[in-house]
Every structure is written in C-alpha cells, then in structure tokens.
From TrEMBL:
PROSITE patterns membership: LRR
Protein name: LRC43 protein
Keyword Chaperone: no
Keyword NADP applies: no
Assigned keywords, A-Z: Leucine-rich repeat, Repeat
Native organism taxonomy: Eukaryota, Metazoa, Chordata, Craniata, Vertebrata
GO CC, alphabetical: cytoplasm
Matching InterPro entries: Leu-rich_rpt (IPR001611), LRR_dom_sf (IPR032675)
Length: 327
C-alpha cells in the first residue's frame, strides 16, 4: 500500500537517528528552548551565539548539517534521493520536533512513491492532510478510490500503472486538482470518456491520457470541451492519434488549449485548422500507418544489381517478397 511504502521511506531516512532527531548530541539545545535561561537565544537566532552555547560532547547545528551535505559522509543520502528527502533530514536537525511522530504528516506537501510495487492507495494517505502533490508512477495500481485521497491535492500522477476504470476515482475527486496524469494505463474509450468532464474536474489545467486505448475522437472531444480551464492535453499513443485529421480537429475544437501532445499551438496553426471542428465527416474510422523496414537478416536484397559479364548467357535471377502486417 501507499502507506507502507511511505513509512518504509521514512525509516530509511533515519529522522530520529544521529545526526538527525533528538539525542545526546544536541539535547541541551532543545531543553533550553523549552526552558530558556536568561540570555538564551534558541534555534533560529544568531548562529554565532548558538555556537557559544554548545556543551562539551554535543554538536552544533552547522556541524550536524555538514554531516548531511558532505558526499563523503557516512550519513549523506544516496544521489538518487529526492530534494524532499534532503529537506526532511535538514528539518530533523534544525527542528526535530516537527518531524517526530504524527507531526511529520503536517510537513508533507509533496509525496513521490515511484516504482515501489504499490498496488493499493489506502486510507492511511488521509493523514497527510496538507498534501498537494501525489506522484505514484510506475507502480501496480489498477484502481484508486477517491475517498482515500486528501482533498487538498492539486497534482495526481498515476503514469505507468494498470488503471482501467475511473469510476472509483471520480466518486468524490479532489476539487482543486489541476493536473491529472493517466498516461501508460489501460483506459479504453468510449466507456471512460464520461469521467473526463468538468463535473468531476472543474479546475483541471493539464491532462495526460497518452498511450491508453481511446478510440472515439468525437465522443472524447465532446466530453473534454467542458473542461474550461484545460490548457495542456496529451493524447499521443492512443488509436485516435492515428486519424489523419486528429490534430487539426482537436486544435479547432478545444480553442483554449495551449499545448497538444507536447507541441505548442500557435496562431498560424489555429488559422490553418479553422472550421475543421464543423466537419466531423472528415473523421473516418480508418487510419494510415507507414512502416519502414530498416534491415532484414538472412534474405537476399532484391535491389542489388547483378554484375554480369558482357555477352554472358547466365540466367538473371530476381527476388521479390510480400510482407503482411496484421493489426
């Protein structure tokens, strides 16, 4: 579950262990913050004065931070860790009470759990009641229940999972969501088109549906047209993208789009495709695919000219092949 992966990551960070957390290496500094004697400046005050108050056998904040940042330090994070991981550890040095116990839930604005074999988005995620960005790419999620999502979410990324149905996600979706990433999943049109409307996503600015199985361009556009704030749309990799008039029809139908399939829509392109949305008869249920053969091993090349001597009576041998593709 997402919760299990979350706690596993926290444990790996060692927020309660040296040089983070609270221990013999910094205890007097935080005891003094709770019961400050006269002249005690506390955390966040003049660093020079803080250095003066460090007791024998303890470490200054600067020394502890250096242990986190020096790449040769045994307490340095691996290079593949996120900036958020580093920030949490710094916070555990400077203000360990903020990441102790349940307090840690209020710290998170962004959570990235990528390629951790997560299958379930469980209700434990609701403890992160300040969460705005949730990245769950490259996991094994097949269904996601909106009741288990913090309502504060603005970004939800589910790329490279196994999501085939949006019904549970759209039961009570986060109302402020601005980006929804569903690329490389198993969504099929037209059964899922009805969940891609402003009734579920009134503030959606960016939508990634790439590399799914949407097949009904007219039906999909009729639903997406209700998303008045939509500016970025990715549909490449779907069967609809093979339709010859695909891009022109979308550009003219969704007039507020700024970017389609990672390509900016300029005024010239708007003018070029103007009026295409009023000609749905141009959208045929067929597509043209060009397949280029780079190299075939073990077969004589039919284009190679035979080098024959002048006056030779040797027979001329020609080769031809038929290659069939089944879709």
């Amino acid at each position: 579950s997402v919760s299990a992966a979350f706690w596993e990551d926290l444990q790996r960070l060692g927020l309660q262990d040296f040089p983070c957390g609270l221990g013999s290496w910094n205890k007097s500094r935080f005891n003094a913050r709770r019961n400050p004697p006269r002249g005690w400046l506390g955390l966040g005050a003049d660093p020079a004065r803080q250095e003066e108050t460090v007791l024998l056998g303890e470490e200054s904040p600067d020394a502890l931070m250096e242990l986190l940042h020096d790449r040769h330090s045994p307490w340095a994070l691996p290079t593949d860790c996120s900036p958020q991981d580093q920030h949490l550890r710094e916070m555990a040095v400077l203000a360990p009470e903020l990441v102790h116990g349940s307090n840690v839930f209020r710290v998170f604005r962004s959570l990235r759990i990528i390629d951790k074999r997560v299958e379930e988005v469980d209700e434990g995620l609701l403890q992160l009641d300040q969460l705005e960005e949730l990245i769950l790419s490259a996991n094994h999620i097949s269904r996601i229940t909106s009741a288990n999502l913090p309502q504060t979410l603005k970004v939800l990324e589910l790329c490279c999972n196994a999501v085939a149905d949006l019904q549970d996600l759209c039961a009570h979706p986060p109302p402020e969501l601005q980006h929804l990433g569903l690329g490389y999943n198993r969504l099929c049109g037209p059964s899922q088109d009805k969940y891609l409307t402003a009734a579920f996503w009134p503030n959606l600015v960016s939508l990634d549906l790439s590399f799914n199985n949407f097949t009904d361009l007219l039906g999909l556009v009729s639903q997406l047209s209700s998303l008045q704030k939509l500016r970025i749309l990715v549909l490449q990799g779907n069967p609809v993208a093979l339709i010859p008039t695909y891009r022109g029809f979308l550009v003219d139908s969704l007039t507020k789009l700024s970017i389609l399939d990672d390509i900016h829509i300029g005024p010239d392109e708007r003018h070029q495709f103007h009026g295409l949305a009023r000609q749905p008869e141009l959208i045929r249920s067929e597509a043209r695919v060009v397949v280029s053969i780079g190299k075939i091993k073990g077969v004589p090349d039919p284009s190679t000219c035979q080098q024959l001597e002048v006056g030779s009576e040797a027979p001329v041998i020609t080769y031809s092949y038929c290659v069939t593709y089944e879709f």
